[in-house]
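Q: Predict the assembly, please.
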Amino acid sequence: MVNKNLQEYSKKIGDELITIITRSEIFEKGALSNLKEQIDNIGRSSDGSFELEIPRHRPLRILKVDHQIISEIEITCIIKGRITDNGELDFSQYSMEVSLWSDKPEYCYRKPLDAENIGLRIQNGEPIKRIILRYHFDMKNKSSTIKEPLFHFHLGGEIVGEECLMWHPNNLCEPRIPYPPMDPFLVIDLTLRNFCVRSMYEIYENPRWQSKIEICHKLFQKRFDQLQLHQSLFA
Amino acid sequence: MLIWFIDDDNEEYEKLKMIIYRGLDKKTCSDIYIQNIHPAKLENNSDINTIRKNPDIILVDFQLITPEKNKGKNHLFGNFNGLDIAASLRIQYPSIPIFLYSYSNLAKLKAIQEDIADAVFDEILYKDNYLDFTNSLLDYLKKIISGYSTIVKSNICEITEKKNQKEILHTLLLTPANSYDDVDSIFAELEVKGSAEWSPFDISSLIRKKLMRNPGILYDALHAATFLGISENAFKSISSFFESAQYQGIFSEENQYWWKSELKNLADNIMEGNELRIPYSHGFHIAWKRKFDTQLDLAKCYASGDTPAECVCCILNKPAMIRYTFQYPDIVYRSPAFDEKRVCFKAILENKFNKLALDKDSLNFFEKYSKDLKNHGK
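A: Predicted assembly structure:
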C-alpha cells in the first residue's frame, strides 16, 4: 500500500518541479537527474521511507546567481527516515547545507589572514573561487550534550581544504535558530528568492511553482510551529 | 501596382476601388490597377487572356461561390470559398503577398480553416475595417509589397547554404548582436519543417507571423512597457531613451517594435546595485527615478490593480502580475526564445477562457483568487 503523501510528493515534485528547474538553465544538469531518481523511489515507498541524498562531491549547483559577490551556490543534503501517513516526520538523519561561493578576488583572498600562495595564484591570473559562507539546516543531534532546537539552522561548519574561506569563525556554530525542516525544494525556493531574483522571478512567482512548494511545505513543515521548535531548545 | 481581386461579387469590386482610390490624384490612380477576377469565369482561355499577369498583391474573398448564387450547380462539395483555391494560389505565387479579404461576420473560420488560412495567406483582412476610410488599405498593402520586394532582392531563397541564409536574415532584420542566438533559434524551426526550398512567403511568415506576433525577441509598445514595469503611456513618453532598441528591419513600417535584448542593455545602463538584482519590471522605475528624478507611471495588474504588472495576458492583452496568471496550455511548440504565454485569471471571470483547461493546482489558486475578489468587493 503506497503512502499517499509520498506518492503525491513524488508525482508533483519529481515530475513537475524538477522539469521546471531543469528548463531554467541556471542549474547544473548532472545532480538533477540523480535527484529525480531518488524522488521517484520515494513515491514507490510502501512503508513511508524517505531517503534523499545530494552529496558534497555531487551537489546541486546554481551557476547563475544575481549577486555582486556570490557566483555559485551549492545545495547538499542527507535526509533519512520515514514520513507516516499522518505526516509525522521520523528522521534518523537530517541535514541540509547551502554553500555560497565567490570568484571575486577581493573576497577570495584576505591578505592578513589567508595563505600567501592563494594571493599569488590570483595574481597569476588563476581563476579561484572559495566558499564564503555556509548555512546549515539540521536536526537535533540525539547524542549531543549541547541544547539544540529540534530543527534549526546556523552558520559555520568545518573548514575543508583551502576552498572554504569561511569568513565565519570555524568553531562558532551558535546560535542555532529554531527553524522548521525543509526538503531540497523548499531550500531551492528560499535560495532562488534570495539570490536569483532577476533570473528566476518568473519561475517562483508562477502559481504553478507556488502550488508545488505548498506540497513540500505541507509534507515537511505543517506540523511544526515556531513556539514548539523554540521550546524544544529547553527540552 | 497590380492588385488581383478574386471575388464573385461585382459590388465588392466597386467598393474595393473606392477604398483604394479614395483621396488619390489621377496620376497615382492610373499607377494602380485592380484586376477583378470572377472565379467562375476562369474556365475559358479567352477569359484568362484578358487578365493582366504578374500581380503585386492578391486579395481573395472568402465566400466565392455559394449554392444560393449558383442554382443548378453541383452542390456535392458545398460552398466554394477562398481557402479552397488558397493552396494553389500560394504554390503558383510564392513571392507575392496573398490576403484573405472578407467581412468579419462572413469569415468565421473553423479551427482547421484557420490553420489552412495561416499556412497560405499572409493575413486575413476584414473589409469592415476599411469601409469608413479611417485606415488606409493601400498604405498597408504597399508596406507588405515593399517587404516582399526586399526579401526577393536579398536572394535569401536562392542561396542554399544555411550559414549564408542566416546572415542574410540578420541583415534583413538588422539583428543586434545580443539577439543573434534567439533569431537563429526560430530560423532553425524553418529547417525542422524540412522545406527544401523556401519562398519569400516563408521568410515573410517567419518575420511577421512568428517573430513579430510572439513577444520575447521583439516587443510591441505594450509588452516593452510591461517588461519594464511601466504603463504604455509612460513608455511612449520616454521612447526616445530606447530609440536605439527600436526595430528598424524589414516590415518595420507596419508597427513599432523594440528588441528585448537592447531594452535590457539600455535599462541596465542606468541601473545600479540592488536594482540589477531584481526583475526589470521592479527595478527600472526605481533607477529612472534616481537618475532623472521622475516617477514613471507603473504598469497596473488587470487582475488585482496592484503595481507593477510583470507580464501581458495573451488573451486579454492587458498587463498582469505573474501570480495572477497561469501558463497558457499551448499544444504547439514554441521556441524558448519567446516569452511564455500567460493567461490572466480575469480572462476566466470574463468568460474569455475556460477554467476547465487549468490543472488542479492552478484551479485551486484561481478559486482562492476569486474568493479574495468577492471578499474585497472588487
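The two ends of chain A are 36 Å apart (CA to CA). The first strand of chain A starts at residue 49 and ends at 54.
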